[in-house]
Structure formats: C-alpha cells, structure tokens
Amino acid sequence: MALAAKLQLRQSQALVMTPQLMQSIRLLQFTHAELERFIDDEIERNPLLERRADEDDRPEPEAEPPPEREADGETDWFASDLDHNAERLADRLDSSLENLYPDDPGTRDRLSPDLSLTWKSAAGSSGSGGDGGFDLEDVAAAAVTLRDSLTEQIAFGFAEPVHRIIASELADSLDDSGYIRDDLAELALRLGIDRSLLETVLIGCQNFDPPGLFARNLSECLAIQLKRLNRLDPAMQVLLNNLDLLARRDFVALRRLCGVDEGDLIDMLGEIKALDPKPGAGFTGQGAETIVPDVVVRPAPDGTWAVELNPDTLPRVLVDQTYLARISSGARSPADKEFLSDCMQSASWLTRSLDQRARTIVKVASEIVRQQDAFLMKGIRHLRPLNLKTVAEAIQMHESTVSRVTANKYMQTPRGVFELRFFFTAAIASAEGGDAHSAQSVRHRIRQMIDEEKPSDVLSDDAIVDVLRKSGIDIARRTVAKYREGMNIPSSVQRRREKRAMAGAM
C-alpha cells in the first residue's frame, strides 16, 4: 500500500481563553478585599477610571467649552475612529458578555441596579467635611508585637549586658505560641556560654508577662502560670506531669496518682482550664477581620425573601467621560491614540465585568435562598442537602461559575451571616424513603443529643445511630464517629468518665 500526502480542511469551534476572559474568571471569585485592591491597581494604571463620589460630597461640575476644531476642518479622531460609546466599543472587542461569560448567554435582564450609574466613591463619605483637616480617629495605633513587649521587659529585667544579649537570643527562639523550641544545649554552644548561665537567664525570662512564656512544653507553661498564682502544690505538679491521662479523661488514675478525692480533682481541673496554653498567641494575631456580607437577605412584605447586594461591597468605579473628552482632542500621535484606545477598552471591560459579576452573585444567591427557604424560616434542622449542580441547572449556568461565585462570599440572613458554601451540604438518605437530610443538620442533631445526655445514660455511637434511624435518618456508625470527631466531641467512654467525675464533685 503506497503512502501519499494529502491536504484536508477542517472547521471547528473552540473557546479561546483570552487574557480578559481569564481576568474575568478571577474577578468573579475575588473576595471584597481582593476586588478593592484590584480596582485600586486598575485606577492607578488607567487614567480614565475613577471612583465615583457620593451625591452629597461630589462638587458641581464646571461647564467647559467644547474642544476647538482644527482650522482645516479635521474632526475629533476619537469620536470618528474609536466611537467612545462604551457598549459599542466593547461589542467590537473580545470583552463582550458572551465572550467573558459563555455560560451566561447575554441576558440583559437587570437583577440588580445598573452599577455603572449607582457606584459611589468609598472615600466620598470619609474625610473632615471638606476642610482638609486631620481626623485623629482615622488613625489606628500599631499593634504591639511579642518582640516589642519582650524587648522592653528585657531592658528592665536584666542589669548585666551579657544577660540581656542571652535573653534577646531566647526571645528570638520563641514560636508564635511563646514556647522555646530550640535545644538549650545547642543554643548555649552557639552563644559560647555555659548551660547553667543560659538556664539562669531562662528562669528570669519566665517571670515576664504574660505568664507562661519561655516554656519548653505545655506542662512547664501551665506550671509557670500556676506558680505565679501560688497554686503549684505537689498534687498539681503530679497532675501536670500526667497530662496524657487528663487527655484520655482517666480520672480514676489521676486521683490515685495525685492522692486527692474527686472534689479536689475537679477543682484542680477547673484551675487548669482557666490557664492560657498559648500565652504568645495574643501578640501574633492581627485581630479578627470583620466579615462584610456580599448579599443581604430580608423578609419581603409579600412573605418571600428580598435578596439584595450589600451597597458597602459594591465597587464604585466609572469611566471619566469628561476627562476623556478633554484629552481626546489633544491626542495627535499614533502612540497617544493607541494608549487612549487601550485605556478605553480596559475601562469599558472593567465596568461591564463588574456589573456582570454583581448580577451573577445575586442570581446565585437568589437560587440558594429559594432552595433553603425552610432553613431561613425554621432553623438548621431544616437545612436541605444541596450541591453546585442543582443551583447551576436552575439558573442555567455552569457549575464552575457557581463554584467561583460561592467561594469566600457571605450572606447576611435573619439567622446570621453565613458563607455561601455553608448552604451546600451532602445528603444523608432517609430511612423511610422520604426526602434526604442535610449532613449539616445531622451534625446539629448529634451535638444536641450529646449535650442533653445524662451521666447515667451516655450515648454510644451505636445508640446515636439507633436514635437517628428512628427519626428517619439512615446513617452508618462510622459516619456518626466521623461527624463526632469533626466536632471535637470525645468518645462515649471519655464522656462517661468526665460526667461521673463532675457528678461526684457536686
């Protein structure tokens, strides 16, 4: 059989991931903080973008004369060549909604207000009334770090310069919890000092605040704090030396080793629970970041739910058409024209993509609210099992789009603020062939049953399975054990020991 070369022509279609399409995908899954940083960068690069001021703070625009035309009758190149109408320009480029969101085919139904008309400047409401004054309340004090606190205490705690140097080296070896993880022998060898001198300085450092710093393990950390409270007696020291028995809740063995009765043991456990196992953690944290919900859900007058975008999270940007008209008449060189064209394309793409992002979030959130109406009305026990595919099919979008929308987005409801991913839970089959149960609601029932159990009737995992099956939930024992461990609930044996010890002390 002879081989021959031949030419074939094939026609096919493929979605090309243009840079703007990839950026739009990123834009969809940005958190509020990430989106604000991205917009700030875009405004810095693009002179045609600006943050819109509030209506009350925005100055009245000054009337400007129309740009003068050239004597030879040359018209404005920008008006004739580029057509600065944003929508028509974007339709000619690859930034149209059909290209940026192929799984949301070009619907123009407004599920939220036109953001290009309602965005306002985040900085418009701040300031000092336009007088250029300085508001001291706008300045936050810098957080004191653990190293700053220790540097001050070392300066007052040691008189000898050598001791201060050693103490500074010990402070540098602390981890985020305030423990020394370096080997003292290696540290003494590195510093070229005797081990005894290092331990002497270490004892002095253990008197610093907060108590518990410079410990080498958890037992020593708790002992330092108890010593400061004058509560480190021999029985308590034995208890600290056997924290593994405490973790297993073996109170019988602890009573025998410590030589105390049940009442004294319960008092000792109460004192230990009041201590701080990570004394350095209070300095490392930057404080709890306030969660700003992206969507607000309120009861509507007709008995349904009103789903709205949170105006505090709306990106307030627009294209500065006034500035564009001012500079377009002065652009004559090809480089200037190309620069303005790129800026206009980028600005048009950003405003339209932000508008589409907001409408997509509302669309997904509205479907979640429709699916989880029972949860909003009656509580977590009525949370329905839900997956991304169900929502995607209901709103005619792709699963990946729903996944990006629900990532790191929050919804404020009458029952609290929840991440959108909270409403997506696995399904637990019904024992009676009815509707499936949400895994989250099953976890809630397990925790509720364990919280209500009595010392004489502690429920094992098998007993919990029987109770759930009687209520119509078909669940395996290993699933109950997995949910219980995920909620940091000890086993029935450990709970029985603890409850009996607590009951004996009362």
UniProtKB/TrEMBL annotation:
Residue stretches in coiled coil: none
PROSITE patterns: SIGMA54_1, SIGMA54_2, SIGMA54_3
InterPro entries per UniProt: RNA_pol_sigma_54, RNA_pol_sigma_54_core-bd, RNA_pol_sigma_54_DNA-bd, RpoN_core-bd_sf
Sorted UniProt keywords: DNA-binding, DNA-directed RNA polymerase, Nucleotidyltransferase, Sigma factor, Transcription, Transcription regulation, Transferase
Matches recorded under Gene3D superfamilies: Homeodomain-like, RNA polymerase sigma-54 factor, core-binding domain
Domain of life: Bacteria
Family membership: Belongs to the sigma-54 factor family.
Function: Sigma factors are initiation factors that promote the attachment of RNA polymerase to specific initiation sites and are then released.
Protein name: RNA polymerase sigma-54 factor
Gene that this sequence comes from: rpoN
